[in-house]
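For the sake of transparency, this paper describes our internal protein records without simplification. Because each token names a local backbone shape, the row as a whole describes the fold. One such record is reproduced below, unchanged from the form in which we store it.
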Amino acid sequence: MKAITIKQPWASLIVHGIKDIENRTWACPKKYLGQRVLIHASAKPDREPYMIFNDSQADAIDNCVMDVCGYYKQTGAIVGSVEIVNCVQNHPSIWADKGVYNWVLANPVLFEKPIPAKGKLSFWEYDKIQEPVSDGDHNVCMCRICVDEEVQVVNMGNYFVCKYCGGRWYK
């Protein structure tokens, strides 16, 4: 499964469902739009969070600051996953920087247990998690880590979502 490395606290904000934009100087390749990617927290975090948030961003995380600020210290690990649903410029989100590409993110999943891993620049392959495949009879995610952990999935009506990796498949 594809992964992308992001500095903390941004990685935590994404997987907690707070930050809905990833800012990059390059456009997201079209083949990744609509795809779920793993979020890897880089080994080196960004500056202290209180120094990098503007007023609107600080207000947005106010109610969950303890969750995020405690979790953001997790570095050098895959901390969750998210879907990249669009790539635009000048998005109205409080997280969007002007003059760069704003990757629009949706459906974040925070992993219960971060997976230690060494990151890389750009997109990279993490082969221990694969898109899940259902045999039609079992409600257990079929990705490698989830099978080892025997993680159950959540039945969402017309599809299942793995509680661990966020993978989904349709009935």
In short: Helices lie at 10-15, 55-61, 65-71, 144-149.
